[in-house]
Amino acid sequence: MNKMAIIQFPGTNCEYETLRAIRHYGVQADLVRWNEPLDSFSTYEGFVLPGGFSFQDRVRAGAIAAKLPVMSVIQQAASAGKPVLGICNGCQILAEAGLFPNTHGSNHLEVALAPNQRDAKPLGFVCDWVNVKVINPQNSLFTRYFSSEDVIPIPINHGEGRFVLESELDPTLTFLQYCMWDGYVLDSYPTNPNGASHNIAAIASPQGNVMGMMPHPERAAFLKQVPSWIQGPWGEKKHAFVTTDFYAPGPWEKLFVSLKEYLL
Amino acid sequence: MALSSQDLDAIRTLLGRSPSTVELSIFDTMWSEHCSYKSSKEILKKYLPTQGSEVALGIGEDSGIIRFCKHEGKQYCIAISHESHNHPSQILPVEGAATGVGGVVRDVYCMGADVVGVLNSLHFGINDGKSPLVDDIAQNVVLGVSDYANPLGVPVLGGETLYHPSYNDNCLVNVAALGLIEESQIIRSRVPQEALTEPYDMILFGKSTDATGYGGASFSSATLDKENEAVNMGAVQVHDPFLKRVIVEAIKSLIKVVHQEQVSIGFKDLGAGGISCATSELASAGGFGVEIDLDKVNVAFDHLPPEVIACSETQERFCLAVPKSFSQTVLDIFNNQFALPQLYPHSGAVVIGHITQEKNYRLMSKGICLCDLPIQAITTEVKAHRTTLSRTILKTETLSSPVLSHEIIHTLCTHLLRLENICSKRYIYRFFDNAVRGDTIIYPGEGDAVVTTPIEGCPVGLTASIDSNLYGFIDPYVSGAAAVAEGVRNVISAGGKPIAVTDCLNYGNPENPASFFDFEEGVKGIADASKALGFIEGEPLPVISGNVSFYNDSKQGNAVVPSPVIVVVGKVENYQKALTMQIRQPYQTLILIGKRYAEFGGTQLDTMLLWGRKVAPQVRFSEEAAQNKAVFTCIQEGLLSACHDISMGGLWTTLTEMLLGERGVFRVGAELKIASSIDLPTLLFSENGGYLLSVSSNTLNQVKNTLTQFGVYVMELGQTIPEQTLSIFHKEKSLDWNLASLKKEWNSKNS
To answer: How far is CA B137 from CA B94, B414, B423, in A?
Structure first.
């Protein structure tokens, strides 16, 4: 089976739970340090850039890591159509490297992840659970098993997660939008938790093999991770919590399963 | 320099000569209150129960360690360290609070454990117009904690925030860190006996040494004053959680190799007193000496005076005693694999000296010996005898209970939820990552304590609560006892069984006999509660780690409210036993456990009515022990639909929190029918320990039987209803609220 590499940048801090979630759903994966010899990355058929604070968010979150030699490998993989998923700080790094949405294939910066805002005022770090829905789920290998009707709870933990777009988003791209628990896309705090343009939480490339997402699917991979207070079926299911399966599937099971089947 | 003239005389007598400059710096640190516990040691030893059959490593090293659970043949333990960083946080709140987190996690990492969570207890002042910095300090302390814990990748698993004007000039920032470790893999903070027959190196690793935090330990051991402001600022350390994260990953790699190759090492973090403190303690604990070459220390810039290199408190550093033959492996992990020198100028690992058989502490610089001390002279026990000045503390209330009209009670209820000590603290904890590592299953605010499942594939949950209260002015003994009792209740309500206690004791100047009396009373209270509330037959809840912070005084010289902060750690046998506090179904019976007493000294009702009540809510150990066991049994048997303990703000606060839940997404209301003979203010606002249970009709009889068995005081209050209202019928009157308006009060600081 094709293997994925979870890249450990200096300052990454979500690598272990990301590895655990991915492996649990059947993807073979290794944790690989940023400064391993470049040719050691070539055996991998996909990459995950996990969350964290690479280089302490100096300059801008993700800006320094995006310049590391390992990113040339990631860029090649992205243009070769291999899966590349950036979560939280990984999303910021991919954005700084111009790897998504990358509408023209030129790795030109098209989005930025700016400091969180509420009503156009600085908000600071936000740790919370939000809901998202998927627009054009069929156009990305990460989201193809979701439906555009799904409302999916997921946690966010970031200080710089406000999507700012260079130009209008191509409407055919896959993207995630922050929404209320009934699916309504309300552009105000806390539904839109950071002031993101068009409530955007994630964007994929036109080919759908690269995606940057600010929320953390690895923290919503299992039912046990869901808080019971959230509104909707997942909160009720967690409250009942009758399963004896410690790793009973959570709201983001489909992302990981899809990834596994893609890599088969 | 904080050494007194008596100290200087004692040092001269000890050495038979005058100390050198470097030696003086070392004594200044090592004999400071902060490092030597010279005032507190005697009291702590006299009272605190520290032994228990499940204690894997008791008080004495950087963390205490308690056995947690067995999984796949491995004995897992929890290592805990609990520290204060009050003075640094008052002066430079972001840096002070951040390095508070940074310091306490190092204590856990150096046992070989991986930190799985931190808890914080923050005590802030109340802006009265005369203390304009109070709000600023509160805000920046919160940022400091999040600036460190979030990048480090350690979830903030709980906390509490208390407000009181006595903290206006001296905030309290207490942090506890919990680490996971297998018992067979505990690494001790001492040079191993193998050093008798094999050459051992002393390795320093982490951030390059600079001048930050020079004199930090001695300034924490005196009252803050204006004149020394500039010196004090320099004594605060600077944090680098990014570098620490990489160092921690490197430590994990190192420890793996150490266990694989079965190398005996000694490991200690650098905190107060820097290199001199850590290396001398590491050597002396093993019965060895050490010679350090200060020229080898990787410094951030040139021309640092040797005493600064020896004693600065530069953050993110550790030291190791390893066999000389293993040194290269260590250097390679830090300097090449994790490339520390490329991430921060001059950082990394270096051999700075070697272990010696003669028991001297020797520091060399440019070929000259700057310090040559018998190692026991540094780590020798220094004692400062303190006297106490007792005061009369009333234990029995003689005043009759307050007579309040139903209208006033209604207003007080509504208003209580707005008080800064009662209202939702989401405006603080939304800054803290509570889910990194992916193991959190009960989140902050969902239950009385957070539950996490730190062992891969293992259904056993870890729960912990951090608690204190504001009873200390009225009754310092109760303050200590109530903090332990509350922590125990929180752990039980979350579905756990309490297994260990840690304490962080924040008091005023110990040279002031009145403050020292408060301290001694607090310790007695903690000790008595720990002895009474244990869960292993015939054993106390062991106090396995702690810290003392004195000199928490205002500019006028008044001490802060005596503030013992307690962590209780618990074990949830199976994650399915974990319980939250919100009631989600109508027609659940509400049962009060624990008799209410009209003891209002230091309570939230007291603050609203200005009665000047003089008896604090007493902790009745045998009643509480029975309640704890009864509720524990009900939860373990799965008989409750929700549970929440009663503490600050009384039954009223407990009930509204159970209806509002973590986020104020209420699902049901409630209707209480209270007999006319019951004194309503005492029922609603008394802060004596107790619980409120929510029970469905299916299990009601079983619950009642269990409670009868344990002989606890029980009162059936009423039931939940589908309507989103809360009503209390009493003496033919009905007090009514709608939940939306209560939510608004309770959420007042979140908007």
So the answer is: 8, 29, 20
Comparing CA positions, the residue from B313, B159, B300, B302 lying closest to residue B236 is B313
CATH of A3-263, one of 3.40.50.2300, 3.40.50.880, 3.40.30.10, 1.10.3730.10: 3.40.50.880
CA separation for the pair B520, B512 (Å, rounded):
12
Cβ of B733: how many Cβ atoms within 10 Å? 13
> Distance between CA atoms of B380 and B373, rounded to whole angstroms?
11
Mutate to test the interface with A, among B141, B443, B582 (most CBs of A within 10 A): B443
Banded pLDDT at B656 (limits 50, 70, 90): very high
Q: In B469-594, which residue ranges form alpha helices assigned H by DSSP?
A: 476-493, 513-532
> SS3 for B254?
helix
What pLDDT does B384 receive?
Answer: 83
- Residues of B within 8 A of A241 (CB-CB) are 575-576
Q: What pLDDT, on a 0 to 100 scale, did the predictor assign at position B119?
A: 97
Looking at per-residue confidence, does B92 or B556 come out higher?
Answer: B92
CA distance A169 to B401: 67
Which residues are within 8 A (CB) of A110 and not within 5 positions of it... i.e. 6 or more apart? A98, A101, A102, A103, A165, A166, A167
Question: What's the pLDDT score for residue B421?
Answer: 96
Chain A hits for B429, Cβ within 8 Å? 127
ipTM, interface predicted TM-score of the complex: 0.95
**Token digits of residue B538:** 């015939």
Burial pattern B308-341, b for ≥16 Cβ within 10 A else e, equals bbbbbbbbbbbbbbbbeebbeebbebbbeebbbb
At residue B566, what is the residue type? I
> Does the distance separating the beta carbons of B457 and A228 come in below 8 Å?
no
Please state the domain extents for chain A. Answer: 3-263
Q: Name the token pair of A104.
A: 């023209």
Write down the pLDDT at residue A247: 93
- In this complex, the residue of B339, B434, B576 whose CB is nearest that of residue A241 is B576
Q: How far is CA B718 from the centre of its chain?
A: 37
Give the pLDDT of residue B607.
87
Report the residue from B338, B431, B436 with minimal CB separation from A13. B436
Top residue of A123, A228, A236 to mutate, by most chain B CBs within 10 Å, is A228
Angle, CA of B416, B642 and B697, to the nearest 5°: 120
- Rounded CA-CA distance B464/B479 in Å is 19
Per-residue tokens: B43: 């009291």
Rounded-to-integer distance, Cα A256 and Cα B56, Å: 40
Per annotation, catalytic residue among B82, B85, B123, B239: B85
Q: Are B736 and B727 in contact (CB under 8 A)?
A: yes
What DSSP state is assigned to residue A147? -
Q: Which of B153, B439, B446 sits opposite A13 (nearest CB)?
A: B153
- Cα dihedral B707→B711→B712→B714 (10° resolution): 60
Has residue B216 got a pLDDT over 70? no
Measure the CA–CA gap between B743 and B748, rounded to whole angstroms. Answer: 8
Q: What is the pLDDT of residues B668-695, one digit of tens each?
A: 999 999 999 999 999 999 999 999 999 9
| B34 tagged catalytic | yes
Buried b (16+ CB within 10 A) or exposed e, B163-182: bbbbbbbbbbbbbbbbbbbe
Q: In this structure, are residues A97 and A86 in contact, taking their beta carbons and an 8 Å threshold? A: no
- How would residue B481 be classed by pLDDT, with cut points 50, 70 and 90? very high
CA atoms of B246 and B713, how far apart (whole Å):
53
CA distance B20 to B256: 41
Token pair listed for B611: 């009665």
